[in-house]
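Journal club prep, notes for RB
We'll compare a predicted complex against what the paper describes. Inputs for the NAI case:
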Amino acid sequence: MKFKQNIRGNVALGVNPLGCKQEVLNQIDYVKSKGHYDAPKKVLIIGASSSYGLATRISLAFGAGADTIGVSFEKGPKSERNLGTAGWYNNIAFREAAEKEGLVAKNFVTDAFSHDAKQEVIDYIKNEFGGKVDLVVYSLASGRRTDPDTGETYTSSIKAIGDKVVGPNINMQKEEFFIDTLEPATEQEIADTVKVMGGEDWELWMKALKEADVLSEGVLTTNYSYLGTELNRPYYGGGTLGQAKADCDVKADNINKLLADINGKAQIVVATAVTTKASSVIPFFIVYCIGLYKVMSEKGTHETPIMHQDRIYREMIYGDKPEYDDEGRLRPDSWELDSDTQAETEELIMKLNEDNFNNDMTAYDLFYKEFSNLSGFMVDNYVDEDITIDELKSWEY
Ligand code: NAI
């Protein structure tokens, strides 16, 4: 069977399952090359199948020897034309590699927003995972959420607040640079985005886990935020997504109160801009990234999700180099926010136009490769093999 990369706009539709496997192995090799570090051994990751959540899981398992439970929402193969999602294959590749090393790697493919998912995970922790977890990572990104109590489904919108935003954007399918407009959100759209991407579900998870008594004394829970800079504030920090992230700060305070009696802590981690399926559909963001990555690559500070998450857990959270801001948020994004980096990024992206956005002046090629890697294409060390749809269907997550 031949695997074909298929991009619609900035959304990847095609997948190469074998490439996904190799990409997971590459990330495992990266972590192993850094050696062992001490960190919790019983970890739950909500949103574990791609990008930041997957990278976190790989770092903790292969860097610190953690047993992990991963929750994700992915689809398996149905036919040669419908091979499912990359995260499905990432889950399988991760489990196989972790089990080879004697680690527990349990995958739940289910709707994390539901009460049932929480109960299933709690039952598993109680009955098969030793009874407690020491670290809960919340790394979910979704466009929709069904409220588990009312059954109502909410859709998030990536929109500006107040004034519309007009600026350059990129369409990777057409390799086109164009001027895009982001309309301001209505009050309802802002509220719905907070409902989907804010911290409500994170808090529900922590309440359910606490009530079920499956959190260890001193448990830590992390949630990945993005604050960005003046260059992307109009469409991120100052837009609907920024409101959702601000809600996570509020929910972190609630969770800190909830966990006080077991000395637990909720930690917002303000992560750096990286190429992920979620970030590729944020209007204008790719333009920022291809400028930023060029500057950061030249300074030796550009990171992929695995590099960033491994540094966060190895050096910051469980190491001796944490950096916090005045609100107590962890700030691994300080490399992105570095004033020279930002000034040079601004200068570069101001020069971009339809003729030069994809030449050596920018990191367009790097962004495109990282984007392709997410679906198993353009993967380093990839070796093509013949595989049938029936063989793919027989892979178990
Ligand atoms: P992603 O789209 O690569 O991964 C999202 C994960 O959530 C996947 O594992 C997916 O299966 C899971 N998921 C989605 N809906 C689900 C559901 N209903 N039930 C169970 N699992 C579900 O996202 P990415 O970019 O790794 O984002 C993770 C977090 O990191 C988000 O909070 C995002 O805002 C944050 N972040 C991202 C940055 C970026 O540049 N990409 C920068 C800083 C923070």
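Talking point for the session: The radius of gyration is 20 Å.
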